[in-house]
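Lay summary. Proteins are chains of building blocks that fold into shapes, and those shapes determine what they do. In this project we predict the shape from the chain. Here is one chain we studied, written as its sequence of building blocks.
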Amino acid sequence: MRMWPVFLRLEGLPVTVVGGGRVALDKARRLRASGAQVTVVAPEIVPELRALAPVWRARAFEARDLDGAWLAIAAAPSAVNAAVRAAADRRRVFCVAVDDPARASAFGAASLERGGVEIAVATGGEAPALAALLRELLAALVPPEVARWYELARQLRAEQRRTGVPFAERRHRLARALCELHGAPAPTAALPAAPSAPGSAATEQVRS
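And here is the predicted shape, written in a compact code that computers can read:
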């Protein structure tokens, strides 16, 4: 399955979570942390979810529950998840079906956030335990200094954009600056080029 990895800015946007158990609670917590406006739809919900969700519709899911939503989270039995996916498709809303990849049009990821950098690992919903293990491995590998790397990269990018440094040189200059930060020899070989076609919008984003 071919997918396009992307991060969503959900601050202030309505998201519907269908389901009232512990899995729905976990998703609602992460959505609230991202600033989303969460609505929960389920006949019954765990007490922690009741305190977390500003809106709770205490009934079975109805297609109209997705009206105006930017994202749907289906954390219910498979038959309900199928109904959520169908309603989401009709409204062109992406649907994350938890532990039910056949019902999903989007997939969550195991993520690690450290020092302004967020790394996400996904398996298309087929092996979430592996994604979680890889996240733990990354947590052990990514050093605390990444916060300094992030700040240096952010400042260097702003300077390079201001002075018009060509895209092809930016990553090499960043690598050199990071080596200088730690007193290591600067790289002499050119870094691999980004895989996107030259001049494409994707290339602009990767290189920037």
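What the prediction tells us: The helical segments are 22-33, 47-52, 78-90, 128-141, 146-163, 167-181, 201-207.
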